[in-house]
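#structure-requests
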Amino acid sequence: MSENKYKLFVKITTEHDTDGRIKPILLHWEDGRKFEIDKVLDVRQAASLKAGGQGMRYTCRIAGKEVYLFHDEGRWFIER
């Protein structure tokens, strides 16, 4: 994982279907913990208002919390 002031880049395990859709299924935290992505609630093209940049924003439920995951130019990040 790497980071900048507003973005925390994370490793994500994904599934790809035959239509080319990407589904994140597992978030790998920097300390080695892994968090299952319980559900993808929404996927849309959106800007990260806190961190800057634009990409696909995945609204996900992880451990009972709603989290935005961004996929931008082949990298995944969450907002700080």
